[in-house]
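task queued by scheduler; priority normal; single chain, no ligands, no partner chains; default sampling; output format set to structure tokens
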Amino acid sequence: MADNLWLGNDSGNEGDVNVAANWSINVPIAGENLYFRESSQSLTSNLNALTGIDFDDVHFEQSFTGSINDGSDSYFLFECDNLYIGAHDGAGTPGGSGKLLLNIEAKAASVYIYNTGTSSDANNPAVRLLCNNAADVVHVIKGSVGIAKKYGETATLATLNIGYDKNQRADANVVLGSGVTVTTILKTGSMLTTRAGATTLTHHAGELITEGAGAITNLYSVGGSLTLNSSGTIGTLTILGGTEVDFTRSTVAKTVTNCTNYGGKIRYDDAIVTFTNAPASDQVITLTV
């Protein structure tokens, strides 16, 4: 299908999504590929004009330095098969957008976030995403990303994969709000702060912080650092060598049903953390008070 490029250059209506002259073809229709690139023109009005329209691919390239900004923190609404953010193949490193508020609505989609700009709002990530299908998959490599980050927002997805580009510990900073429902989180680097629960969370590297009350059915700590401040119950905690799991930074009561430690470390106050079943280990356990 056709590629439709955002121009945003209709005099007097530059940021209006619903003006034909602001696009290379016309106001977008279902099946097209949308491109936002090599432009600083923000989307500022009629952000819901494309709601319910199903596009093939939507690309917010790193060379797009405009924003989604109608003055009221409204989201740009659309549906698509694939959403790509922050890709760049040319010379140099463009700044990217500091404010993308994207709601991909109800259709199942794959989201690929390669990079973002520096957030123009000190209180929020550069990319804020709402997704609403239990089959959605989100991949984050680099940048600042929030999924249903603000109070009252909700999102549903199957899988969140968080990796890194060059800096394994800090390339991406991802925040999940308490209204997120996610089945699987796989983290091989970067930083994740989550106020949501998950069925399975596997943490290989970087930093993980839990807050709020989200429960995690299965938590695997393979590497990196974990700070568990959430009051949500952890069903099974499995700790591998080279990892420290820290329960001590919050005085909120916590429960771990089952815990197996294969050479990692656990820091906790037994007045705060309840292990329903005593932690098991394949090694001699040393307790340091």
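post-processing summary
- The longest strand covers residues 254-262.
- The chain has no helices and 24 strands.
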